[in-house]
Design goal:
By secondary structure, the chain is α/β, with parallel strands linked by helices. The chain has 11 helices and 15 strands. It has 2 domains: 184 residues, P-loop containing nucleotide triphosphate hydrolases (Rossmann fold, 3-Layer(aba) Sandwich), CATH 3.40.50.300; 171 residues, RecF/RecN/SMC, N-terminal domain (Glutathione S-transferase Yfyf (Class Pi), Chain A, domain 2). 44% of the residues lie in helices and 24% in strands.
């Protein structure tokens, strides 16, 4: 699977541009702030129906324009697939495949497997547990539609239960029968989600450790553990024991929506004890493991987006990384960098066919073709 052509109209800083790509490697170079990352985000939109960076669709419309359009033409197992995403101000987003609009955007997730590696991934280490849960969910949802459906239903039930808790707390009246109706749904959805997450992490850990070893040449030992309240306690019991606290806090305080991942290096928390280079290597290994896992499950090579890969990595680790993506079993690659000569040299040395684009404002010029 690979992206053949991309068309943008009024998307972020782009008034209008159309680009054709190599099925292997595509490099966007230019100064910071010129729009390199926006091109990657447009590709991400076509896979996930949303931006990697800004969840408010209307804010991705170019200033003073009233809409944006992203179109992409993909080769999927020899068949051309056309995707269309449009957002008008104050209107519902449109997303179409081969000119047929989806009734539910969730139906599209997983059709185009894709992995994005960005400096923004640092939130997986520095941010709260929500970021790490989203990472788990983003991997599983690309190959398990039932999981995604259960996740959407679970989150809806949590929201509705929270509304009820708030009403009980403020009125002083508590209806145990009403709360039990929502608890039964939380248990049903939550237990299925927990089991799927647990099995995923079990298979994911050795793949992650393998990639970290490749990137760092085995210099450090890293760990990844799944932290869930459901691991040692029955979910229904958890809910019953926490109901007084839930009423006081006016929201559901226990469940799989509180799950987390523990990241360690040499047995210590990555956030506190890893250098910037080690943290970046940890994150890249996570994303490469995500790529490998999805590729095996779906029997299809995802598109790989590498944004500003030199951020916080020394030359040795970048060289190892580029060797890995050039000679490993990867599909189409999009990469950004501020130094055109640096990328050109890397891929010239690897002997891989590539296209090189120069990005300045909303002007994208192809300076080297396959």
């Amino acid at each position: 699977m690979y992206l053949q052509k991309l068309s943008l109209v009024n998307f972020k800083n782009y008034t209008g541009t159309e680009l054709s790509f190599s099925p292997k490697v595509n490099c966007f170079t230019g100064n910071n702030g010129e729009g390199k990352t926006n091109l990657l985000d447009a590709i991400y939109y076509l896979a996930f129906c949303k931006s990697f960076f800004n969840p408010v669709d209307s804010q991705n419309i170019k200033h003073e324009a009233s809409f944006f359009v992203i179109q992409g033409w993909f080769d999927v197992n020899g068949t051309e697939e056309e995707l269309y995403c449009a957002q008008k101000k104050n209107q519902k987003k449109q997303f179409k495949k081969n000119k047929v609009e989806y009734t539910r955007l969730a139906e599209h997730i997983g059709f185009l497997p894709l992995v994005m590696i960005s400096p923004a991934d640092s939130d997986l280490i520095d941010g709260g547990s929500e970021s790490r849960r989203k990472f788990i969910d983003s991997v599983i949802s690309q190959y398990d539609g039932k999981y995604l459906a259960d996740l959407i239903s679970y989150n809806r039930v949590v929201s509705q239960r929270n509304v009820l808790l708030k009403q009980f707390s403020r009125s002083g009246n508590f209806d145990s029968v009403a709360i039990e109706l929502w608890d039964a749904q939380l248990v049903a959805y939550g237990m299925r989600l927990h089991e799927t997450r647990k099995e995923f992490i079990k298979e994911f850990i050795p793949i992650f450790q393998h990639y970290y070893e490749l990137i760092t040449k085995g210099k450090e030992i890293v760990g990844l553990d799944y932290d869930s309240q459901l691991s040692n306690t029955n979910y229904r019991t958890l809910l019953q024991d926490a109901v007084r606290k839930d009423l006081r806090m006016e929201h559901t305080t226990v469940g799989i929506h509180r799950d987390d991942l523990d990241f360690t290096i040499k047995g210590f928390p990555v956030k506190k004890f890893a250098s910037q280079g080690q943290q970046k290597s940890f994150l890249v290994a996570l994303k490469f493991a995500q790529y490998d896992f999805i590729k095996k499950i779906k029997a299809m090579k995802p598109v790989l987006l590498l944004d500003d890969i030199y951020d916080k990595l020394d030359d040795e680790r970048v060289t190892a990384l580029m060797h890995l993506v050039s000679h490993g079993d990867f599909g189409q690659l999009f990469i950004t960098d501020t130094h055109q000569d640096r990328l050109a040299k890397i891929f010239k040395d690897t002997g891989v066919d590539y296209k090189l684009f120069s990005v300045k404002s909303d002007l994208v010029l192809e300076v080297k073709s396959v």
